[in-house]
Design brief:
The complex is a heterodimer.
Chain A (H helix, E strand, L loop, with lengths): L5 H12 L2 H28 L4 H14 L2 H15 L8 H27 L2 H9 L4 H31 L11 H12 L2 H32 L4
Chain B lengths: L1 H12 L10 E6 L2 E2 L3 E4 L2 E3 L1 H13 L2 E6 L2 H9 L5 E2 L7 H6 E3 L4 E10 L16 E5 L3 H7 L8 E5 L3 H6 L5 E5 H10 L4 E13 L2 E3 L2 H19 L2 H10 L8
Parallel strand pairs in B: 1-5, 1-6, 9-10, 9-11
Antiparallel strand pairs in B: 2-3, 3-4, 7-13, 8-11, 8-12
Helix pairs in contact in B: 2-8, 2-9
The chains are: A mainly alpha, B alpha/beta.
Chain lengths: 224, 251
């Protein structure tokens, strides 16, 4: 076994750290957009609007039923062949679009389940004290639903951060792309990939800690 | 976190890359083809970068580098995401039909490379029969192998990157790449590799442009710059720096 090139590894850390903002930015943008889209899809799935409902089901089925990598290639390399204007979309945008659509399909289902999970009696009680539909949703149903959905949604966000590494296949130099290039020039593959693995790991651990704090806060209101 | 939010806002806002003014030259490269285009400590460098910088100065063009996976480069050129590819693109009849090429700026050969110690068994392309060979996806070396009369007896594996590593690890019997960078990789990298025999095909590498009015105009500008750089010895000098020999002329 050859000794590891520790100097190279230490030198790589600051280089890769400078790509963390881009990785987080792609994940945050995708998460924000996916939350909006998933909420809309979830509400539609509860209301079951004719025709639109079939379209939403087809959407969810497709984006859950095909690999993310295939979807990214379809957007970035495939669609511009049909619509040449789409060639102007850059890799970062295509990655954000792909992550948004892919994850919103999953998130829609967990948001829907969380809303439906709020007990009927809660809805009836809100009506009984004379709340409007909007007040009922805002004050009674959504706070309880978000507590149920939060852990799952944070999990999807963690998955999203890791999935941004696929953007390097669209020519985006993010953490994984930068690592791949450094490795191709230094030929120190193990050193390169273990450093990037540890960096992703640290990011996810920091988030998991945040998740535990958040859940603790949300539980306080329900402490008996 | 705040910084990330700002970047998120900006990236989502810039849904469309702005149309380019034609005093810039967007040059695509993989950034993973040592020593032509590679990255060390986040700095893109190599023979191609030096050549394109010189071309930019000579032609009065602002050079902007775009890095992406090698197999995506030609597609990015066709769809107008970049203006040319500086990644040792070999002139082939098929590519000449689709693109407008400059004159060649590198004369090179196709080379078989094996794990150190196997150069006795494999001494050229004939010895690849019944073996597994790695090539870069979308490269002309893939095509060269497929055109050999005994291509049916060779198992060709295509890669996005890291063919050198897989050969050194013994996962494939050999890889085929250009002679110049093969020699450099053997010399400069820690990988146990060796040249197997002599180069088996002559290749001429040039810069491809889109074959439309705008593309051809840009090609003519760059081609004139290459002529000037050949005449004043700049290209030869850049080649000496990287390879210790002149690969930019046929002499």
């Amino acid at each position: 076994m050859k000794p590891l090139d520790l100097d190279y590894m230490l030198g790589l850390v600051p280089v890769l750290l400078s790509y963390v903002p881009l990785t987080l930015a792609m994940a945050l943008a995708s998460m924000a957009l996916a939350l909006v889209l998933a909420s809309l899809l979830a509400v539609e799935r509860i209301l079951r609007i004719p025709v639109l409902d079939q379209a939403v089901m087809l959407f969810i089925s497709f984006f859950r039923g095909t690999p993310l990598l295939v979807q990214l290639f379809l957007f970035y390399y495939g669609l511009p062949q049909l619509v040449s204007a789409l060639a102007q979309i850059n890799g970062v945008t295509a990655a954000i679009m792909g992550l948004t659509l892919h994850f919103s399909a999953y998130m829609a289902e967990s948001i829907r389940a969380a809303i439906l999970g709020v007990d009927r009696s809660q809805w009836e009680a809100s009506m009984a004290v004379g709340m409007t539909r909007g007040q009922m949703l805002r004050r009674i149903v959504l706070p309880q639903a978000s507590r149920v959905a939060a852990p799952t949604l944070v999990n999807y966000f963690i998955d999203m951060i890791k999935s941004t590494s696929l953007a390097f296949t669209l020519g985006v130099t993010e953490m994984m792309g930068a690592t791949q290039k450094e490795a191709a020039g230094s030929f120190l593959y193990f050193e390169s990939f273990i450093v990037v693995a540890i960096l992703y790991w640290i990011i996810v651990e920091v988030l998991s800690y945040g998740q535990r704090l958040l859940e603790g806060r949300m539980e306080q209101a329900y402490a008996r | 976190m705040l910084k990330a939010l700002v970047i998120a806002a900006v990236t989502t806002a810039s849904f469309v890359t702005m149309a380019q003014a034609q005093d810039t030259l967007r040059v695509g490269m993989s950034g993973g083809y040592f020593p032509f285009t590679f990255v060390k400590q986040d700095k893109l460098q190599g023979f191609e970068v030096d050549v394109m910088d010189a071309v930019g100065r000579q032609a009065g063009l602002e050079v902007e580098y775009v890095t992406m996976s090698f197999s995506g480069l030609i597609g990015a050129l066709s769809s107008g995401r970049i203006d040319t590819v500086a990644n040792q693109i070999t002139i082939t009849p098929e590519r000449e039909e689709a693109f407008a090429f400059t004159q060649p700026y590198v004369y090179d050969g196709a080379q078989v490379v094996v794990k150190k110690g196997n150069e006795g068994d494999i001494n050229g392309p004939e010895d690849l029969k019944g073996r597994t060979v790695a090539v870069n996806l979308g490269s002309n070396f893939e095509q060269l192998l497929r055109e050999l009369p005994y291509a049916g007896e060779i198992t060709i594996k295509t890669y996005e990157s890291n063919i050198e590593q897989d050969t050194a690890l013994g996962r494939v019997d050999a890889f085929v790449m250009d002679r110049v960078s093969s020699a450099e990789v053997i010399d400069k990298s820690p990988l146990p590799l060796a040249l197997a025999g002599k180069p088996f095909a002559e290749i001429h590498n040039a810069l491809p442009f889109r074959d439309d009015e705008e593309g051809r105009a840009l090609r003519d500008k760059v081609d004139a710059a290459l002529t000037a750089l050949k005449e004043d010895g700049t290209l030869a000098e850049i080649s000496q720096t990287w390879f210790g020999s002149d690969i930019t002329s046929t002499e």
